[in-house]
């Protein structure tokens, strides 16, 4: 079931970091091993680098995209896309999943043809993947279901027309509450092979944590039964990275300082922190340890 994780980057972060430790006092450029593979018999940690760019929440959509009105919320989605795409182009081992087509379309329109060709290569190679793929990550309770269908159709048609791709993962990580329509109609029937979300009732989460039932096969339609069921993963808490591993601007997580000449060199300490976070999570997951790495303006 590990492969059900979208864009699973299976790498043992601890090992990667440990590989950077050098014994001599000299320090030079370290090429980290960021390749991915499943290691049998070990806890395989899936780092999931993803967007979560609200298409309007505290600011207008334009303000979110261009970084206006930042006193309300520091958010500039065009910077997210600029920096993510540039990072992907620098290293083919890096991967990213992008979700909100309303923002991606805006960004795409402003790119040169040369850049577009490079980005299409990223998509074709799987370095950049579109998941969910609607114009936004819709709420599942208050909008009429026609709106859910329309906005998802718009986004998926755009991805198909421009990149000839079909999203295969549902990524409803921020909506409050989840409907059966999402599971069968906007999940399985849409062609998704998995669905992930974060928010559930706190008592339900507590029960599932205890019983290790955060991963389920959800039958969203009684009449369609198993023909429209979908593998569903619920995050153990929210969609944030583990404590101490949030590296957004103004966050207070200690940076990983891997230059041995630094007084504050802290690779071993940070490796230990990460291993502890992974072990804590495996305590209540059945199949995999997904760890969210969010590049986002929420
Ligand atoms: Zn949100």
Automatic annotation (TrEMBL):
Annotated Glycoside hydrolase family 38 N-terminal domain residues: 44-278
Record-linked InterPro entries: Glyco_hydro/deAcase_b/a-brl (IPR011330), Glyco_hydro_38_N (IPR000602), Glyco_hydro_38_N_sf (IPR027291), Glycosyl_Hydrlase_38 (IPR050843)
UniProt keyword list: Signal
Signal peptide range in chain numbering: 1-18
Gene3D superfamilies, A to Z: Glycoside hydrolase 38, N terminal domain
Record PANTHER family: ALPHA-MANNOSIDASE
Official protein name in the record: Glycoside hydrolase family 38 N-terminal domain-containing protein
Native organism: Hibiscus sabdariffa
Taxonomic placement: Eukaryota, Viridiplantae, Streptophyta, Embryophyta, Tracheophyta
């Amino acid at each position: 079931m590990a492969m059900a994780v979208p864009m699973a980057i299976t790498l043992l972060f601890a090992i990667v970091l440990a590989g950077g430790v050098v014994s001599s006092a000299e320090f030079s450029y370290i090429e980290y091993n960021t390749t991915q593979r499943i290691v049998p018999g070990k806890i395989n940690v899936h780092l999931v680098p993803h967007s979560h760019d609200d298409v309007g929440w505290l600011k207008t959509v334009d303000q979110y995209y261009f970084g206006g009105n930042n006193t309300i919320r520091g958010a500039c989605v065009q910077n997210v896309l600029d920096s993510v795409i540039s990072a992907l182009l620098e290293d083919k081992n890096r991967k990213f999943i992008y979700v909100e087509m309303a923002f991606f379309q805006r960004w795409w329109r402003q790119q040169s043809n040369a850049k577009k060709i490079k980005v299409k290569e990223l998509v074709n190679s799987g370095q950049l993947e579109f998941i969910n793929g609607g114009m936004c990550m819709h709420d599942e309770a208050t909008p009429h279901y026609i709106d859910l269908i329309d906005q998802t159709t718009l986004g998926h048609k755009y991805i198909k027309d421009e990149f000839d791709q079909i999203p295969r993962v549902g990524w409803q990580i921020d909506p409050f509450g989840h409907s059966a329509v999402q599971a069968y109609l906007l999940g399985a029937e849409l062609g998704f092979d998995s669905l992930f979300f974060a928010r559930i009732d706190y008592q339900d989460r507590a029960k599932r944590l205890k019983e290790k039932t955060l991963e389920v096969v959800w039958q969203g339609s009684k009449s369609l039964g198993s023909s429209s069921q979908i593998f569903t993963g619920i995050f153990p808490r929210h969609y944030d990275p583990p404590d101490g591993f949030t590296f957004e601007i103004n966050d207070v997580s200690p940076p990983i300082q891997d230059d041995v000449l630094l007084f504050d060199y802290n690779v071993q300490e940070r490796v230990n922190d990460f291993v502890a976070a992974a072990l804590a999570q495996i305590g209540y997951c059945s199949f995999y340890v997904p760890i969210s790495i969010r590049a986002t303006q929420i």
